[in-house]
Amino acid sequence: MPAPLSNDLRIRIVEARAKEGLTYEQLAERFDVGRATVNRILRRARETGSVEPLPHAGGPARRITDAARAVLIELVRAKPDATLEELCTALDVHTHIRVSPPTMCRELRLLGITRKKNLLCRQSSAPPMSWPGARHLSPRYSPVTPSA
Predict the structure, then answer these.
(1) Is 62 exposed, middle or buried (0-12, 13-18, 19+ CB in 10 A)?
(2) Is the dihedral of CA 104, 105, 109, 114 positive or negative?
(3) Sign of dihedral through CA atoms 70, 75, 80, 81?
(4) How far apart are CA 95 and CA 63, in angstroms?
(5) Within 10 A of 138 (CB to CB), how many other CB atoms are there?
(6) Which of 4, 11, 45, 133 has the fewest CB atoms inside 10 Å of its own CB, making it the most exposed?
(7) What are 62-104's pLDDT values in tens digits?
(8) What was the pLDDT predicted at 32?
(9) pLDDT in tens, 30-42
(10) How far apart are CA 26 and CA 114, in angstroms?
(11) Rounded to whole angstroms, how far apart are CA atoms 84 and 107?
């Protein structure tokens, strides 16, 4: 979402409407804003006497409470290699709060808990053989050296 227009621009729009009697379309073109924006600014000035932007509404409430956060920390300590789905299921069993894996990921990030892969799932450290020059870097390849 774009940032709100400056109060200076809002005041100039209201003053131009009052002094010059310009239409909404003319104001929009003159100040390089949309007609709906002009409409909202003038309506707010008319209804409230102010052109200040409204404060942020806050968005939806978080699903995981402080008590559930403490349980989540203990679940991660007990099983640090658990997947997001496993953590979601375990949290539901212990606290009866159902969350999606993306919500769980955001909550872990807010708690400062990093997600690391299990050692058994790590990929080989050897570069793929299709990579240019990989034959010379791979431990599986030992170049033939001429004998003296």
Answers:
(1) middle
(2) positive
(3) negative
(4) 11
(5) 15
(6) 133
(7) 889 999 999 999 999 999 889 999 999 999 999 999 999 999 9
(8) 95
(9) 999 999 999 999 9
(10) 53
(11) 11
CA-nearest of 59, 41, 49, 48 to 4 is: 41
How far, in Å, CA of 64 to CA of 98, rounded? 9
CA-nearest of 97, 44, 89, 31 to 67 is 97
Q: How many CB atoms lie within 10 A of CB 91?
A: 23
| C-alpha–C-alpha distance, residues 2 and 15, integer Å | 24
Cα–Cα distance between 145 and 116 in angstroms, integer?
Answer: 41
Which amino acid type is present at position 16?
A
